[in-house]
Design a protein that fits this description.
Elements (H helix, E strand, L loop, with lengths): L1 E9 L4 H11 L2 E6 L6 E7 L5 H9 L5 E8 L5
Antiparallel strand pairs: 1-3, 1-4, 2-3
Length: 78
């Protein structure tokens, strides 16, 4: 399993609805409300070889109320 981090910018007044919808997918390991340009931060574990872009587009970014997403991949540094 490989972790990815996804930040989401939500339409005004939609953050709680988006968070509830994401929680119901049961694919998210951790979900946080954040300050700054993005409203939510998710940590998701995906299978090795799974298409990250397709996962984010189909499973996350398609949720109503999401305006923008930013995906961060991590690499083993040490």
């Amino acid at each position: 399993m490989k972790p990815i981090f996804v930040q989401l910018q939500c339409a005004p007044g939609k953050t709680y609805e988006v968070a509830d919808a994401i929680y119901k997918t049961e694919r998210v390991s951790e979900l946080y409300s954040t300050s700054g340009d993005y409203d939510l931060l998710l940590k998701v574990y995906i299978q090795e070889g799974e298409d990250i872009g397709k996962f984010v587009n189909d499973q996350i970014a398609s949720i109503p109320g999401i305006v923008r997403s930013l995906t961060t991949l991590t690499f083993r540094a040490f």
